[in-house]
Specification:
By secondary structure, the chain is mainly alpha-helical. Helices cover about 70% and strands about 0% of the residues.
């Protein structure tokens, strides 16, 4: 298969994006329900408890998004000026909608009597606020920085001609896993007190998507072994940091190892099955997938507004609240896609015309 992807492949990937976005939304709504209602308030609390203690749908959605990005985005680098094309397309694809979302969040905070500092807003606009010592206006946006680092890494790999070099990718991805697991183990055993971060672990899932593309689509020799070796390293590494993360309360492991590990395994199985069998073939999911980025950016804002009029009670009636949140999120996301995302994507294409390659990512 060439770098250009077929329309069927687009629908397949967009369907996966929809599943990932819906998983994140459901996780956040049940999390809000459990935080807003006392334990045992009603049957919906029992459903929420069962869910969060067995599988983290939010982490499932994030991992699936990462696998999709790794599978698709690196192969959008092309054209007469590939790195410039890539940088411009990413900026126009991601930043305008983010800036709209940040403007909405800042406005809501202002009306709530807690306006964010200008430095915080400006840092958020870069998609890397932590580099400037600032917090995200919405903590759910943390994945955007992971994606940004991945774009920089694959651009560097492309520039030195190793973006398809399985050996280099394997060493790099395993090193990223070790960059998370090794400091934890050294700290746990009292050998050294190195800084612990989970950036490397998250990035490894993006590189897993890249290796899966090289294995399943590009048929590059050695890619299958590299991909499976990375999966094995991740399966070993996640439990090795679980106790440390829980004790520190850093939110990498929140409710326990089981829901997080189950989420990662489920994301891998779903993604692998989707690629191998070209599923899901659903026009509805494909359309939802088109607006999945706006869903990610705006679902929390929509939920907060709905909760003001329909707070959770723990009863079956909460299903109505969740449905209204979902429907309004889809409507808002469609509006943002039509008025911001799509025009900006087209604008990016006009700024740096692409020749010979037509992709969507």
């Amino acid at each position: 298969m060439s770098i250009s992807m077929t329309p069927q492949r687009y629908a397949n990937i967009d369907g996966l994006r929809a599943i990932a976005a819906l998983g994140v939304m459901v996780e956040h709504m049940f999390g809000d329900l459990l935080r807003q209602t006392p334990p045992g308030a009603g049957p919906m609390n029992a459903v929420g408890d069962l869910l969060v203690h067995n599988v983290s749908l939010g982490r499932f959605g994030v991992a699936l998004f990462f696998l999709i990005s790794g599978f698709v985005v690196p192969f959008s680098i092309g054209g007469e000026r590939p790195l410039l094309n890539f940088a411009v397309s990413r900026v126009f694809r991601l930043y305008p909608a983010l800036w709209v979302a940040l403007a909405v969040l800042a406005t809501m905070a202002w009306f709530a009597g807690e306006p964010p500092r200008a430095a915080t807003v400006l840092a958020n606009m870069t998609m890397a606020p932590t580099l400037f010592g600032q917090a995200w206006l919405s903590p759910i946006y943390w994945t955007l920085f992971i994606e940004l680092v991945f774009y920089i890494l694959i651009a560097l790999l492309f520039s030195v001609g190793t973006l398809r070099h399985v050996g280099v990718l394997s060493v790099l991805s395993l090193a990223l896993v070790a960059a998370t697991a090794l400091p934890v183990q050294l700290h746990t055993h009292g050998i050294a007190n190195l800084p612990v971060q989970y950036l490397g672990m998250h990035l490894s899932f993006l590189f897993l998507g890249l290796l899966l593309r090289l294995w399943l689509v590009e048929r590059v020799p050695g890619a299958r072994i590299a991909a499976l070796a990375l999966v094995l390293a991740q399966v070993v590494a996640v439990p090795s940091v679980a106790a440390f993360s829980l004790a520190r309360g850093d939110n990498f492991i929140m409710e326990g190892l089981t829901p997080v590990l189950t989420a990662y395994v489920l994301a891998f199985v779903v993604f692998l099955a989707a690629v191998r069998f070209d599923r899901p073939r659903s026009a509805l999911l494909a359309r939802i997938g088109l607006i999945s980025y706006s869903m990610y950016l705006f679902h929390w804002t929509v939920n907060v507004m709905v909760y003001r009029f329909l707070p959770f009670t723990g009863q079956i009636s909460d299903v109505v609240t969740m449905l209204i949140c979902t429907i309004l999120t889809l409507l808002v996301s469609w509006l943002v896609y039509r008025t911001v995302e799509r025009p900006m994507i087209l604008c990016g294409r006009s700024v740096v015309p692409r020749h010979g390659i037509r992709t969507r990512s």
